[in-house]
Structures are given as C-alpha cells and as structure tokens.
Amino acid sequence: MLHLHIFSWVIGIILFIVSYISFTKTGAPKKAYKPLHMTLRLFLVLILFSGVWQVVEEFATATGSTHMLLTLKMICGIGVVALMEVTLVRKQRGASHKGLFWGTIALIIVTMALGIILPGGPISNMFVITK
C-alpha cells in the first residue's frame, strides 16, 4: 500500500501543477483543465484511501513510537489535499490564489519531509531504524 501511496502523491503533485498552469493569459481555463482536475480528484481519493489504510495498519500494530508524527503527517496530508482543491477552484473563479498556491507547496514539502523521516521512509531504511 505504501507504493500506491507514493505513486499517487507523485502523480497528484504533477497533476496539481499542470492543472494550475493550464489557464490562458486572460485567466480562462483551457479545454484540458476539466479532465486534469477530475483526474487530480481521482488521485486525491487514492491518496486519502491509501493514507488512511497506512494509518490504520500502523495504529493496529501499536508497537511503534511514532504515532504522534504519523498523526501530524496525516493532518498535513489532509491539509494538502484540501489546499490543492481550494487553490484550483479559487483560480478558476478568478479570486486570489497565489498565496494558497505557495502555501500548498510549502505544506507538500513539510508532509514529504515527515514521510521521509517516519519508519518505512527512505532515511529510516537507509540507517536501519526500526520501530
């Protein structure tokens, strides 16, 4: 399930950025915007599903000491998903959106950093840190 989660995040971030820049210079969405946005929503559902699955698996074992970090990552992940959607909708409506865009990017970086340092992440595996 971890691979599905990582794959979904990578595709979701790419789709978010492509959807964000798929507007004309006048601010109207291009024809490709709607399919991109719908595909992004599909991947957001996959992200949420696989993330919740991982949290349930981790909490079911109850052997790790990283529950607080995992909960923080879960909250950040839900925030990223919400900010992605709100940013695109506000841009489509012509409202202010640049601050939301950069806030989303910053929260993506924080969430990815938390995912990297948690057990099962690349740094934990590199230094053989177990739960």
Structure description:
The chain is mostly helical and 131 residues long. The protein is built from five helices and no strands. The chain has one domain. It is 77% helix and 0% strand. The radius of gyration is 16 Å and the shape is elongated. It starts with a helix and ends in a 5-residue tail after the last helix.
Helix and strand layout, with pairings?
Blueprint: H1 2-21, H2 33-61, H3 67-93, H4 98-117, H5 122-126
Main location: membrane
Keywords: Cell membrane, Membrane, Transmembrane, Transmembrane helix
Subcellular location: Cell membrane
Brief rundown of the structure:
This is UPF0344 protein Sca_0577. The chain contains 5 helices and no strands.
How many structural domains in the coordinates?
1
Uncertain spans: none
Measured between the Cα atoms of the first and last residue, the distance is 18 Å
In percent terms, what proportion of residues is strand? under 5%
Subcellular location: Cell membrane
Organism: Staphylococcus carnosus (strain TM300)
Keywords: Cell membrane, Membrane, Transmembrane, Transmembrane helix
Protein name: UPF0344 protein Sca_0577
